[in-house]
From TrEMBL:
<keyword id="KW-0862">Zinc</keyword>
<dbReference type="GO" id="GO:0051990">
    <property type="term" value="F:(R)-2-hydroxyglutarate dehydrogenase activity"/>
</dbReference>
<keyword id="KW-0479">Metal-binding</keyword>
<dbReference type="InterPro" id="IPR016169">
    <property type="entry name" value="FAD-bd_PCMH_sub2"/>
</dbReference>
<dbReference type="GO" id="GO:0071949">
    <property type="term" value="F:FAD binding"/>
</dbReference>
<dbReference type="GO" id="GO:0046872">
    <property type="term" value="F:metal ion binding"/>
</dbReference>
<dbReference type="InterPro" id="IPR016164">
    <property type="entry name" value="FAD-linked_Oxase-like_C"/>
</dbReference>
<dbReference type="Pfam" id="PF02913">
    <property type="entry name" value="FAD-oxidase_C"/>
</dbReference>
<feature type="domain" description="FAD-binding PCMH-type">
    <location>
        <begin position="36"/>
        <end position="215"/>
    </location>
</feature>
<dbReference type="InterPro" id="IPR004113">
    <property type="entry name" value="FAD-bd_oxidored_4_C"/>
</dbReference>
<keyword id="KW-0274">FAD</keyword>
<dbReference type="InterPro" id="IPR016166">
    <property type="entry name" value="FAD-bd_PCMH"/>
</dbReference>
<comment type="similarity">
    <text>Belongs to the FAD-binding oxidoreductase/transferase type 4 family.</text>
</comment>
<protein>
    <recommendedName>
        <fullName>D-2-hydroxyglutarate dehydrogenase</fullName>
        <ecNumber>1.1.99.39</ecNumber>
    </recommendedName>
</protein>
<dbReference type="Pfam" id="PF01565">
    <property type="entry name" value="FAD_binding_4"/>
</dbReference>
<dbReference type="InterPro" id="IPR016171">
    <property type="entry name" value="Vanillyl_alc_oxidase_C-sub2"/>
</dbReference>
<keyword id="KW-0560">Oxidoreductase</keyword>
């Protein structure tokens, strides 16, 4: 270790674990985007809030940028360290600190994986309901940093709804205790909500008080095959009108083919262009009858061509794998990802316009669509051809993203539904936020991070 700044860091925070090996720098310096070459100064792994404070104070003295790091499962470049930043990994801060049965809260350190949070809640007969496919590797701090949504937003909302309190270290090294699990608190600005979705640019979340709830009633899962794109919202409205939906997820035949090639079981004998996985509360015969009535009505209207309802937990998991396995199945193609949202009522017009736009713009590329239709969130994955260079591929995709951003302005949507802005979507932030809003966001960052050391260059440029 030859850098005198790192020697000073270890002198300032004596028990700090620090990694500088080339393999560690590469591993911790990137996220799932894989578009930037990682080049961090070092990897700091604090074990306490006080150590995080010490790192931040050191960074201010030496004018070293910090990239907060959780599970690094993000898809917008928010956890990338490509310019000599210090990566501050919270993976050692991964414990349950407290469970309060009366308040029904679970206090955890920010580096705790989401799946571990689920397991801890289950031990007390309750659930933390935010969920998505990366549950085993993403961290609760990263979920908070992007206000992650996932597959059950239609029923439970985003991460934001389940955060009762936060402990945050600001860019100047101050520790803030935000909201303290109060149900009602009208004493000024709610900085807790400001930190949620801020992508580590305002403060480093070190602890979180999570709201828990009762386990959901028994559910059932149904796979629906749709003959066309246009009927998607009709099917959604029919099922939502008859059932208490837990999830309503959409994907295309191309997505299905990749998941089947990755080891999933073929669900239906014939092939169809579009599919829906829906999960709904099903705790009595009346609910089962309502589900079948919705299915039969959609069949009669020509909105659904085929389908299957799970008869066991194992079959339900097989059906869910068809949706949750998409990201892993297409990862080897280095997909260019768009993660957009519009109001549910605007979804039909936006889908029609976007489908035409992408069909014209990407005639030679394979485009894999899937999304959380029940909450207006669409994921668009453009797969890189083997004969295309990374740079040429990204250039072509960014041209279309500009067109997509224009369509989002027209429909009042967002360029980032749940993955954050990071580096990838920074050029398109103005399609979602006005100049006045962005100016205020810069002002807020200046207050919480006066020297601009926290995740600089992410979300917007200084």
């Amino acid at each position: 270790m030859t850098d005198p700044r790192l020697a000073d860091l270890l002198a300032s925070v004596p028990d700090l674990r620090l990694k500088t090996d080339a393999g560690d720098l590469e591993h911790y310096g990137r996220d799932w985007t894989r578009r930037w070459n990682p080049a961090p100064l070092a990897i700091a792994l604090p074990g306490t809030v006080e150590e995080v404070q010490g790192i931040v104070r050191w960074a201010n003295r030496h004018k070293v940028a910090i990239v907060p790091s959780g599970g690094r499962t993000g898809l917008s470049g928010g956890a990338v360290a490509a310019n000599g930043e210090l990566v501050l990994s919270l993976e050692r801060m991964n414990k349950v600190l407290d469970f309060n049965r009366v308040d029904r809260t679970l206090t955890v350190q920010a580096g705790m994986p989401l799946e571990a949070v689920h397991n801890a809640a289950t031990e007390h007969g309750l659930v933390y309901p935010v969920d998505f496919a990366a549950r085993g590797s993403c961290s609760i701090g990263g979920n908070i940093a992007t206000n992650a949504g996932g597959i059950r937003v239609i029923r439970y909302g985003n991460t934001r709804e389940w955060i009762a309190g936060l402990t945050v270290v600001t860019g100047s090294g101050e520790v803030l205790q935000l909201n303290r699990a109060l149900v009602k608190n009208s004493s000024g600005y709610d900085f807790r909500q400001l930190m949620i979705g801020s992508e580590g640019t305002l403060g480093i979340v070190v602890e979180a008080i999570l709201r828990l709830t009762d386990p959901p009633p028994p559910t059932n899962v149904m796979l629906l095959a749709l003959p066309s794109f246009e009927v998607l919202m009709e099917v959604f409205n029919e099922f939502r009108g008859r059932l208490r939906l837990e999830a309503f997820e959409f994907f295309t035949d191309r997505a299905l083919r990749h998941v089947l090639a990755h080891g999933a079981q073929k669900p239906l004998e014939d092939e169809y262009p579009f599919y829906v996985v829906t999960e709904f509360a099903s705790n009595d015969e009346a609910t089962e009858a309502a589900a079948m009535a919705a299915f039969e009505h959609c069949m009669e209207q020509g909105w659904v061509a085929d389908g299957v309802i799970s008869q066991s937990e194992a079959q339900a998991q097989q059906i869910w794998r068809l949706r949750e396995g998409i990201t892993e199945a297409v990862a080897r193609y280095k997909p260019y990802k768009n993660d957009v949202s519009v109001r549910i009522s605007a979804m039909p017009a936006f889908l029609q316009e976007t489908q035409a736009l992408l069909g014209e713009a990407y005639p030679h590329f394979e485009v894999v669509w899937f999304g959380h239709i029940g909450d207006g969130n669409l994921h668009i994955n453009v797969l890189k051809p083997d004969d295309s260079s990374d740079a040429d591929f990204v250039t072509q995709c960014e041209h279309v993203t500009r067109l997509l951003a224009q369509a989002l302005v027209k429909h009042g949507g967002s360029i980032s539904a749940e993955h954050g802005i990071g580096l990838v979507k920074k050029p398109y932030l103005a399609s979602t936020r006005s100049e006045a809003e962005i100016a205020l966001m810069r002002g807020v960052k200046q207050v919480f991070d006066p020297n601009g050391i926290l995740n600089p260059g992410k979300l917007f440029d200084a």
